[in-house]
Amino acid sequence: MKVARALGRDEEAVSVIVAAIMLMAVGLMLVGNFYANYAPILGREDEMVHMYRVHNQFVGVRNSISTLIEAQDTEIELLVGVRMGTAGRAYQGIGRAYGYLTLDPQRSSVQFNASYPVENVDATKGNLVFESKNMYFPNQYVVYENGGVIVAQRETSSFISDPDFEATFEGGYINVTFSSMTLTGDLSTVGGSGSRVVKMRLVTGSTEENYWTGNGKTLEINITTDYRHAWIDYFSQTLVISGFTQLAAGTRPVNQGEFSITSTGYGLWLQIARVNNYDNMKGVIDINLE
Fold first, then answer.
1. Contact predicate 151/144, CB 8 Å
2. Is the dihedral of CA 192, 195, 196, 200 positive or negative?
3. Of the four listed, 163, 231, 239, 253, which is most buried by Cβ atoms within 10 Å?
4. Domain segments of the chain: what residues?
5. Please, are residues 165 and 178 in contact by the beta-carbon 8 Å criterion?
């Protein structure tokens, strides 16, 4: 009897151990399933929210620069914070995203010319770029150049905040307004996952008006940029909506209301025929990244 009771107790102990092992196995399976299936979803959501935040912060940079130009005050310094990445969730197995913020005063340029005879109107340089290093959400470039904010993802790019550009017919005359912003400062890059600060100060600012009598002149805008698709789509949509007629790429516009956009290896070339008035709000902004 004592032997039988001992064997019974051993079987009960084994059953408890087996049950514990099975519970552990189930628990590990659930944890593994969470890390494999749900952690990437949560990580993607965190990074998506972060990228939208960066979009809005770059719009803040754009608005701050516009404010400096309008105020024409070289003593004012405006600051905008940019969040570089996410904090991650270590206890859920979600990694930390980070990013880089780069000021390049030579990276992009806009050249404004009025043809026949050729007259150089203005030129700008410089852009500010955020490059994400995400683990789950697709990487993006968020760019401020010449008054607008562009988001580029894979092979596509588009404006999320438009530059200051307008073209209208008024009393048989064509009027074009386009602000030109030059960014100055040291070529610099800051990175990490925390917050960085963009400091902006007006160096010079002015508004110029160019008026051409008679049939006006063909206004030519040459843009050197890594994001030409955004600029091409923007100019095309804006001018067509304003009543202008788009010609085939490479075709020189001659008649009033005609324009053409030609893509080049380094950017694009916009031509608008018979422009009578071109207003240009110019600004040179010094940028410092901290």
1. no
2. positive
3. 231
4. 2-289
5. yes
Place of tokens 């803040």: 60
What does each C-alpha distance from 194 to 113, 139, 165 come to in angstroms?
A: 43, 17, 34
State the chain's mean pLDDT as an integer: 85
Give pLDDT < 50 ranges for the chain. 3, 7, 30, 34
Q: In this structure, how many other beta carbons lie within 10 angstroms of the beta carbon of residue 95?
A: 17
Contact 194, 80 (CB under 8 A): no
Which residues, other chains included, contact 152 with Cβ-Cβ below 8 Å and sequence gap of 6+? 140, 141, 142, 143, 226, 227, 230
> What local confidence, expressed as pLDDT, does residue 278 receive?
87
Print burial letters for 144-153: b (CB count within 10 Å at least 16), e (below 16). bbbbbbbbbe
Closest CA to 268 of 218, 225, 217, 219: 225
Question: How high is the pLDDT of residue 252?
Answer: 92
175 has which bridge partners? 168, 277
Q: Report the alpha-carbon distance of residue 224 to residue 236 in Å, rounded.
A: 17
pTM equals 0.84
Give residue-wise pLDDT tens across range 200-245. Answer: 999 998 888 888 777 888 889 899 999 999 999 999 999 999 999 9
143: Cβ contacts below 8 Å, ≥ 6 apart: 58, 127, 128, 129, 130, 149, 150, 151, 152, 227
Q: What is the pLDDT of residues 142-163, one digit of tens each?
A: 999 999 999 999 889 999 999 9
Evaluate whether 180 touches 259 at the Cβ level (below 8 Å).
no
Strand partners, 286: 184, 201
What tokens does 97 get?
A: 């995203």
Distance CA 85, CA 197 (A): 14
Please tell me whether residue 177 adopts helix, strand or coil conformation: strand
Task: Give the amino acid at 181.
Answer: M
